[in-house]
């Protein structure tokens, strides 16, 4: 196990009906808030109105900013930042999936600093992110997730897309940890089968990335990771078929929070190659992040099966019911088992199914290595994924 430091400062309020506490919690932090949310879902499901009412009843003044698109854009974040400043908001609340929560964090940073948000994006060509990250100062943030996927509700990261340059990358820092998150699994009952499945794949990926690429001697982390993967594997298909199954929704919600809160990966090191490769796809084609991850996984796992078969075999045995004793054979069976799991949630697809053009694969591979490689010329994984390797994974996934 590697040495590590871990801070998980976000207070977590979890459970059925807990969204009603939004007002009381916000009132402890601010008199006026910017409530950042998506363009459709929270209004349609009524949760936006519930949160607004709760805030108003607690005497908190609310400015609603409901323009966040899935894969949030820097220009939208900048507009939110301007409004937060002009209105004198003291707290930014992110209500929705990862996109509104990430946008809320970025708004909290730019409202205070006045910097355009695209300069914060890791790997951005301007190079400004090297001075701006990690974010040390921002307005306080509160999150209320309505979708189980990213873990953004209790971590210090966000992901933004700068449309003009097709750059998608992370922004993060200690100031972006939400002060409090209210996780009410009932808010996820209305998530479509497609986004439910994409979310399960996203949390699964957050768990296996470091598990496969990082330090192998990390016993506690292995057990934590495998337990959380099992929760996603078992409950993803249940929630896809039974949207109102509270226990399945609660399991997915809690697993997704724990998957990316730093806990399972502490002392592990490792890298996030799948995320680097996927972020470029969603930057170019505006696809769902979890869907892109599902499509790339089989081709990526084929490389892992060659490089570290014992790790993939272990995941298969402990999370997917693989019984084969030989590591190489077990690794291959794990890939098949993962594909079966994807099929059970209708996310076993190819890039061509999403309208991605073969002609753009080479450019995306180059961009992915540029942003994800941070000057090294490759993305770190179980092997160095240079442009040719990334292109080969894209082509295998086409
Ligand atoms: O468009 P709106 O109205 O927001 O509706 C959303 C959106 O269309 C809808 N939705 C959300 N909650 C719902 C609902 N529909 C019905 N009922 C509900 N309760 O679902 C769609 C997808 O929402 P989005 O927020 O985009 O999804 P997700 O949570 O998967 O977030 C994806 C974004 O997070 C980033 C991704 O790259 C992507 O930009 N990530 C953030 C991370 C982080 N902060 O730690 C890590 C992740 O790896 C990821 O990269
Ligand atoms: Zn992810």
Automatic annotation (TrEMBL):
It comes from the Bacteria. GO terms for molecular function: alcohol dehydrogenase (NADP+) activity; butanol dehydrogenase (NAD+) activity; metal ion binding; methylglyoxal reductase (NADPH) (acetol producing) activity. The keyword Oxidoreductase applies. CDD domains: BDH (cd08187). SUPFAM superfamilies: Dehydroquinate synthase-like. InterPro entries: ADH_Fe/GldA, ADH_Fe_C, BDH-like. Pfam families: ADH_Fe_C, Fe-ADH. The keyword Chaperone does not apply. Residues 196-397 form the Fe-containing alcohol dehydrogenase-like C-terminal domain. GO terms for cellular component: cytosol. Keywords: Oxidoreductase. Residues 9-185 form the Alcohol dehydrogenase iron-type/glycerol dehydrogenase GldA domain. PANTHER family: ALCOHOL DEHYDROGENASE YQHD. This is Butanol dehydrogenase. It comes from Tumebacillus avium.
